[in-house]
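Researcher: I'm preparing a figure for a lab meeting and need a structural model of a single chain. I don't have an experimental structure, so a prediction will have to do for now. The sequence is pasted below. Please return the structure as tokens so I can convert it later.
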Amino acid sequence: MNSLLKIALQFTQPLCLIWLLLGVWLLRLLWKRIKGSLWLPAISWVLLTVISCTPLASILLASLENQIPKVQLNELSDADAILCLGGGVEPSLSEPTGFHLKIGADRLSTALTLAVAGKAPLLILGGGGYPHEGRTLSEADAVRDYLAAYVPLKIELNSLGICSDTHDEALKVAALMRQRGLKRLLLVTSASHMPRAIGVFRKTEVQVIPVPCNYHSSLNHLGDLDWLHLPSYHGFEIFASWMHEVIGHYVYLWRGWI
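Model: Understood. Here is the structure written out token by token.
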């Protein structure tokens, strides 16, 4: 009874309701043999089903996440600096900490774990900018200020300020490392983003040790893979992450950044 009730409640969610209504519309067109108007709802329902009801999106994303081998933090060699690429938090004037954790927050937790373990004497924080009421707030500055005030790390903190993208982060890090004579960098970012990030940093001649984290694909999570299920927003989030990296890779190639 509990299982049936949970399934019934899922159909009150907008995505499940849209999927169900679209399927009913398609069946109605089939029943009435209205073939001329069939192709558009059919394609829409199939796309919705494949992306949100099957592990296809996870399989696609895993093809990116698994390009770089997984690491054990205690087995990593020491480096001159740790770089946490942006995308894990956003500045907030409402949160007591001064920032809000996003879906990529594993980047920050992984970088902090490396810092606490003493893997490098310098933690570099990247991130974008968020316009608000005529000024732009920095993701990296928000994290740096919080860590400096509340987390007693025995490590130097450096904010890259407002960066427009990974290429901008790489240019600023390369300049900082040349200025200080640093050689080896522990690069922390999402596993799906790591292949593109490595290409960017190699282009700037920065020697990186990849530390992939923030695995989104269900193939890289605990538990059995669910091959067919009711529509889930998670599938769209994963598919969007995969599409973002694929398009980003070709844009970076076109611009000569990797």
